[in-house]
Amino acid sequence: MAALLEVSQLHAAYGSTQVLHGIDFSLQAGSITALLGANGAGKTTTLRALCGMVRTSGEIRFGGARIGGYATEDIVRLGIAHVPDGRGTFANLSTEENLRLGAYVRKDRRAIEQDFERIYTYFPRLKERRHQQAGTLSGGEQQMLAVSRALMLRPQLLLLDEPSFGLAPLIVHEIFDIMRAINQSDEVSILLVEQNATMALNLADHAYLIETGRVVLSGSADEIKQNDAVRRSYLGY
Amino acid sequence: MDAFLNQVFAGLATGGIYASVALALVMIYQTTHLVNFAQGEIAMFSTYLAWTLIDAGMPYWIAFFLTVGIAFVLGALIERIIVRPVEQAPVLSVVVVFIGLLVIFNSLAGWMFTYTIKVFPSPFPKEPVHVGTHFFSSHELGAVGVTLVLLALLYAFFRFTPLGLAMRAVAQNAESSRLVGIRVGRMLALGWGLAAAIGAVAGMMVAPTVYLDPNMMSGILLYAFAAALVGGIDSPGGAVLGGFLVGVLENLLGAYVIGNELKLSFALVLIIVVLLVRPSGLFGKIHVTRV
Amino acid sequence: MKPGSKPVALTPPASAWSRQPRMLIPAALLLASCALPFVMNNYHTFQLTLVLVYAIALLGLNILTGYNGQISLGHGAFYAIGAYVAAILMDKFGVPYWLTVPVAGVVCLAAGFLFGLPALRLEGVYLALATFALGVSMPQLLKSRHLESWTGGVQGIVIAKPDPPFGLPLNQDQWLYFFTLAVAVAMFVLGWNLLRGRVGRSLIAIRDQPIAAEAMGVHNALYKSLAFGVSAMYTGVAGALGAIAVQFVAPDSFTIFLSITLLVGIVIGGLASISGAVYGAIFIQFVPNIADQISKAAPWAIYGVFLIGFMYLMPAGVAGAIRLAWARIRRMAADTRQDSG
Lengths: 237, 291, 341
Fold this sequence. Notes:
Chain B is mostly helical. Chain B contains eleven helices and two strands. A two-stranded antiparallel ribbon of chain B has the order 1-2. In chain C, helix 7 (172-196) packs antiparallel against helix 10 (220-246). The longest helix of chain C is centred in the last third of the chain and has 27 residues, at 220-246. Chains in contact: A-B, B-C.
């Protein structure tokens, strides 16, 4: 089965600073894949490269087609939704307006309204606060909003950058449970970047370990969890 | 009392003009963090286009809407062709580009239409309107009406349409806007087009009163700029309110306090005093920076 | 709006030997400038005098806007104050012309500092408006009836052209040129010393990271107000020199257009650059003439095209473009040295 996302020899740089030195990985449709690594390893840069936000060389194939060099706005239209680190919510717009923007490129109005309802069932708190300014939401609620906005696209692939950052574990569990549910019911593939390796490996099917811009380890989540080096360096036991 | 009310009302009429131009300035400022100093000259140039059409025999309202359309296209083209290449340049370099645009439009207008003052027709009747015992100039009433309609349409556009929402999104966070698929470049061009269209309306409403000449809009731009700041440069509502306030202030100052020559300086000084007390404007957001 | 926020490469203090080649170019230019009045006619000499005057004014504005990040759309007002101080002293009190220049400087230093104090509360666009108001008000103030007995109202004041002292074999224009050149050199050396030392670093620190600067002990409020004062002083000195050269002051010579021209000058010349002041002065003195020659009908349209063109080609100003070119040449030289070495 051809992979939904295939990345080969991906190099990326910010100005003259090379950050990715040839990343290779692939992601099967319907799976949840985690990119693990320490701070500064290049995980966020990888996600940004997928969305055309960084200058890259190498090959990125989505659904078989090469998307390297495409503009971010066009990559979104192919069905890739990116929840950036820092969430990227529109702080001065209301919760509902944020969600509506998530569906900006879609034209199926009735389905969009249905999706609103579904999001509100997953995250009732967002429904309560739907007319509130997004910037006044708590950290956890903003993360829910950011993820929901991405889901409003009805994406094929969801990119999550450090969703657990700054959140209480309970909230992270809540969000991750819903991610798992959506992955199974809607067949949304998920590429997850996380520093919190434990939580990520509990959610993901596959994982890649990135160190200083290269993939150094890959395998199923269970394999990675049991790998000695990973256990010592990233899982803490 | 009569005279005072008339001054206040005249102030509201010009205030509406300032409010519109201030709103156009804030729109561009919100998306680009730049003050478009060429706004007034583009509006003046559009007004000259309208004059040419009307002079050639076109009925007023057709010329009006056609001019608004042309101004829209002109604004969008300027953004795409002239502003886009210097988007990433340092702020003051872009300011110099705007100054360049300003002098180009001013000079072109003088060259194409000469510097002799032209009379610009008003679509409203010449007879004043009686309300009780007060007289109001029909043009002033009409101008206020047009301004209010324009502002209402803009409000509805931004609040209730997907495109308006997209533009508000771009003004806040261009990167996140890209991530939901908004074509930021197009929104910028659209914003400039709208701003130019607003300017054209303002120009056509003010020209009958101050007569049409290439320097018609410079005073207005300055008042609009001051109004936008007094209201808070990142608050569209503030800009509108600021516009009306400044209009009334200018008129009252000119009539009762200081005379027409010095009223500009006086008004500006007053506005700066306000800014010293509230440095972000009356309705602007106070920026708390985290270290 | 934070002008000039791209970080400026601060060169480390040069040793005496490495300083030598860097001193050669300004020294050569200075020698050349001294020769110029003898090979040109009086009108051209007069134009060069004005270039020097503008260069001083632009250095002043650059200290405030380029190095310290405080935008000013009203520096024409300080130029006007300097000019009128000189004119009034010469006309009403018979003060010799050369004494009016430092007096104008001191008056503007005070005026600038006083303006800078309330301006501390304003940032970016708001400061732009406040300075714009200053620039717009000045001609109106100068025309006002209340000050007419001093300022001469709309007609202004005519000043006598000074003669060369000690019976030097120069004509008046040449003498004025050298006098202005001497003052310019003094002001530039003073500025260079200020800016490459602690003061310059503090100003730049305040521009780029005001909070960090304050936390490191830089007294922001004092430096920012001083920057205004010093900047006004330079522009006031330029105004006095300009008045003496032109022999005439009138309110309409100092409109908001002058303030805008000064701003254009520092951006075109190059922000946060001393040499930029000279390039900018050359631009604002000569390009309007060139534009006039290209098109009599719409000269300012041509001027506008020049402005836009310069910003496309050299967004960091002439000085910035030269810096980039130098860096590229040095890199190419280093590469060839590496290959051959």
